[in-house]
Amino acid sequence: MTYATVVADKPGQRWVLSLSLSLALALALALAMLGSTVEAHDAEEQRAALLDLEQPHFDHYVLALTWHPGFCGSRRQPPRECRDPALLAGTDEGFVLHGLWPSRPDRWIAQGLSTQEWQRQGCFIERPRPAGDFCQAGPAIALSDSALEQELTAAMPGSASCLDRYEYAKHGACMGMTDDQYFDGSLALVEIVNDSALGAFVRAQRGRTVARRDLIAAFEESFGRGSGRALALVCGGPGNRLLTEIRVGIEAEHVDDFPARHSLASVAFGRCPARIELRRNS
Fold first, then answer.
1. Measured between alpha carbons, how far is 200 from 178 in angstroms, rounded to an integer?
2. Catalytic residue among 68, 81, 98, 220
3. Secondary structure of residue 156 in the 3-state scheme
């Protein structure tokens, strides 16, 4: 599919068609095809990991993926994963994992818990949050597979600040999933997004400023026409122009079919400006 960006700066101004997006998407798709060729042998493993995420007692997930250079550039006091060159290496090759956030469980809806309170507390409603730093007081992640542990370290640089402990304690521990299932499924979702036209488009355009609508168009190139409703773009930094994160809504009942169009769920619209900077590692 070929896209053209339509621009009209003033009423009555002649429409100008730019083919820059179609060229970028062609490159993005080529890169995505290369990536899928490399990862094709993992398709069955990905589906098996996603099956473990299919849960009947809540409605949907929000997959939160960080664009790490933008996240680090937006922080006044950057955490360790933004200061250590070893942890920064390769983080502009694709999105990295922030978290996988289930919606309110049915049992809490029945008790009248609001969406806002669930988003604020999550599993800490049932298992109170430990006092102090999660690296000191939070329950450790004990993955049974060393290969999975290595994959998580590479795909979630925030684990250097114990983000993995926090995310599982808040979003996975009370949802009927082991830490292995939670992170194995999360990593499969990360791989699928990074192998999509959106992931390839962002890699191809890193270091540049792009139109918000072009990011949404790249998402729809992989996930289907109209699927942009399942994508939220999150920005920060000076002028709120740095892409820091994307959030993708996924139906819990159909998560094993991701990225099929019917597996997507609508999410709240992001607040990024019309022009977005895709920062890259220096």
1. 31
2. 98
3. coil
Quick: pLDDT tens for 221-280.
Answer: 999 999 999 999 999 999 999 999 999 999 999 999 999 999 999 999 888 999 999 999
Catalytic site residue from 171, 191, 220, 221: 171
**Is the pLDDT reported for residue 34 higher than 80?**
no
* pTM, 2 dp: 0.85
Q: 151 an active-site residue?
A: no
Instruction: Round the average pLDDT of the chain to a whole number and report it.
Output: 87
* Phi-psi domain of 258 (left: phi exceeds 0; alpha: psi -120 through 50; beta: other): beta
Residue 11, exposed/middle/buried by CB under 10 A (0-12, 13-18, 19+)?
A: exposed
Active-site residue, 167 included: yes
Residues 6+ apart with CB under 8 A from 19: 4
Cα 180 from chain centroid?
19
Token representation of residue 98: 């922030």
57 noted as active-site residue: no
pLDDT (mean) for 15-42 = 43
Which of the following is catalytic: 68, 81, 151, 167? 167
